[in-house]
Write a structure and sequence with these properties.
- With 74 residues, the protein is mainly α.
- Helix content is 39%, strand content 5%.
- The protein contains three helices and two strands, in the order ββααα.
- The protein has helices at 29-37, 42-48, 54-66, and strands at 9-10, 21-22.
- The chain has a two-stranded antiparallel ribbon.
- α1 packs across α3.
- The protein is globular.
Length: 74
């Protein structure tokens, strides 16, 4: 079931050069997705990043699922 990435992911131009990150952290979504793609479990990632929660890690997957439908605003 989707977690609702909009509750957990944000972008700010002055933080991480505008890359999507998990709210309240400087953990980029791409980093979490990379760990998941490498076969790490949510629990493995949480052990490395204590600020991360299971819902936040799953929100990254939900975000990635919607990427083809997001529109860039220029």
């Amino acid at each position: 079931m989707p977690v609702g990435w909009k509750n957990h992911i944000c972008k700010r131009t002055r933080i991480l050069r505008g890359k999507p990150r998990l709210k309240g952290t400087r953990i980029p979504v791409g980093l979490v997705l990379g760990y998941l793609a490498a076969g790490k479990t949510a629990e493995d990632i949480i052990a490395e990043f204590p600020d991360l929660t299971r819902d936040k890690s799953l929100a990254c997957l939900d975000y990635a699922r919607e990427l083809p439908n997001l529109r860039a605003v220029v």
